[in-house]
Amino acid sequence: MAASEKDSRPFRAIIVGGGIAGLFMAHALEAAGIDYVLLERALEPVEERGAGFGLWPQNFRVVDQLGMLEDIEKLGSEFKWTYNFNPDGSPVANASNNFEKLTQRAGYGFTIFRRSEFLRGVYDKLPNKSKFVTGMALERIEQDDKGVKVFLKDGSMEAGDIVIGTDGVHSQVREFMWKHANGVRPGAIPAQEKMSFTSEYRCLYGVSKMVPGLQKSSLIDCNDKHCNWLLFSCEDRIFWLFFEKLGKSFNCQNCHRYSESDAVAVGEKYLSHPINGTVMWRDIWENRIQYHLGPIEEGVLNQWHFGRIVLAGDSAHKMTPNLGYGGNQGIESVVVLANGLNRLIKRCETVGRRPSTEELSAVFDEYKEIRYPRAKKHHDLTGYITRFDAYDGFMYPTLQWLMPRITGKEYMINLFVELVRPGRKLDFLDERVRRRGTMKWEDELTMDEKKQLQGRTMSKSVLFGIAGAAGTVVMASCLYHGISPLPGFHV
Ligand SMILES: Cc1cc2nc3c(=O)[nH]c(=O)nc-3n(C[C@H](O)[C@H](O)[C@H](O)COP(=O)(O)OP(=O)(O)OC[C@H]3O[C@@H](n4cnc5c(N)ncnc54)[C@H](O)[C@@H]3O)c2cc1C
C-alpha cells in the first residue's frame, strides 16, 4: 500500500509461536494498544516442557513495566551465591555472593523459575486470552505490499500487516521468509545463511528434589574435561543442566533427536562424579522429577527480516544456555521491535493510515542494527563459557584457577552488571519502572559516563588477555611435564 493511502482497518500483527519471545511480544503490543493475534502450534498455551528458566534484572525491569512484577517474582527463587568446583569436587575459589550484589546494584535480582510456571505466570497476565490461539499449524505465508496472509492447516486464514516469527530455533516462519526472499530476489538468502545454526554439545537437563549438602539459592558449577554441570538450587528443588561435548559439529538441520533411553544412558554414565565435596551426581540423578536430553544449538542469522516478515528470539539468535541468556535475549529483541513498531504505527495513525512495506522495513532494519551486536556478543560469550566450563581448550582449566586470583572479587559482579546494564526497556512505558538499585541503566547514562565505562571495559579486556596468556603458558608447561593442572583433572 502506498504510504499516503488511507485505510480504516487498524494495524494488525500476526505473532507465530507463543514461547518466551512470543508471549512478551503479545504483552508489549497489548501495552502499546496495537492489535495482534498469536498463533501457537501446541494444543495448550503452556506445555510441561523444559526445566528451569533464569530471568535477569534487565527483563525484570520490563516485567515491572508490564505490571506483573509481584505476580511473577513470587513464582521463582532469587539467587544469592555462586560456587565453582573442580572435577574432584574441591572448590576452585571461595563462594561469592555475586547475585546478591547484582540485586543491590540493579534493583531486581536474578531469579530461577520452573520454566512452565514462568510461562504460565506470563500467560495468565495477558489481558485478552482470545488473541492467543492454540493448535494452529502453519500451511503457508503470503505477503505483498498490502499485507500478509497466514494460511493454517485447519483451512483458516489470518490476515494482517506483519508476521513476527517467534517460533523458535526450528522456525517455519524463517523457512517461508527465506523462500519468499529468494523468490523475489534470487540469491537474497545465501546457502551459508541456512547453515547458521550448529551444535557441538548436548545437554541433559531436568529438575530434582533438593539434596542435603547442596547450598541453597546458589548457582553451582562443576567442571570436567568435555563436560560440565550447572545446578540452580532453590528451597525444595534443583534445576540442573549437564553438558557433554559431541565428537563433531552438526548442522542443526540434521541435529540428533534423543530418546528417553539416550537420556538415561547419559545420566547414568557419570554417577560417581563429585559435584561438590559431599554430593555426587548420583544423588541428584536419583532424585530426579523430570529430565530431557537435547542438542545445544548455536548461531546468529544475518538476515532477520524480509518484506513484512520479521524474526525474534531463537528463530534469529540461538545461544548455549550456560549464561541463562537465550530467552532473555529474546525478550530484549521483542522490546526493541515493539518500541520501533509503536513509534511508526502511532506516527501513521495521526494521519489515518497504516505503515507501508518500506516504512516497516526501515523499522526492522533499525531493530536488527540495535539488536544484532548484543545478541552476537552474548552468543559468543556464552559459547565461550560453554567451552571454558567443559575445558574444551587446553588453557581453560588453568585459566579457571587463575581468573579469580588475578581479577579480584569484584570481577564477576562487574561482569554481571555490564551484561545487564544495556538491556532495553519499553520506551513508551517509561514511567512504569518502580525499582531502583545503585547502578544506572545504559539508557540513563550521560555521554561522559558512557565513555568512562568504555574505558573500564577496555582495561578489563586487557586483564583478561593477560590471564589468558598466563593460563596458556602454565597449562602448556603442565601438559609438557605430564602434571595435572587442576585437582581431579586427567591429563
Ligand atoms: C536446558 C536449557 C536451559 C535454558 N535456560 C535458560 C535460562 O535460564 N534463561 C534464558 O534466558 N534462556 C534459557 N534457555 C534458552 C531459552 O530456553 C530459549 O532461548 C528460549 O526458549 C527461546 O524462546 P523463543 O520464544 O524464541 O522460542 P521457544 O521457547 O522455542 O518457543 C517457540 C514457540 O513456538 C511454537 N512453535 C514452533 N513452531 C511453530 C509453528 N510452526 N507455528 C506455531 N507455533 C510454533 C512452539 O510450540 C513454542 O511455543 C535455556 C535453553 C535450554 C535448552
TrEMBL record:
UniProt keyword list: FAD, Flavoprotein, Membrane, Oxidoreductase, Transmembrane, Transmembrane helix
Keyword Ligase belongs to the record: no
Domain of life: Eukaryota
Domain FAD-binding: start-end pairs: 13-175, 295-346
Alphabetized GO MF terms: FAD binding; monooxygenase activity
Keyword Cytoplasm included in the entry's annotation: no
SUPFAM superfamilies: FAD/NAD(P)-binding domain (SSF51905)
InterPro entries per the UniProt record, alphabetical: FAD-bd, FAD/NAD-bd_sf, FAD_mOase_fung
Transmembrane annotation, as ranges: 461-483
Pfam family, one: FAD_binding_3
Similarity-based family: Belongs to the paxM FAD-dependent monooxygenase family.
Name this protein carries in UniProt: FAD/NAD(P)-binding domain-containing protein
Species of the source: Eremomyces bilateralis CBS 781.70
Organismal lineage: Eukaryota, Fungi, Dikarya, Ascomycota, Pezizomycotina
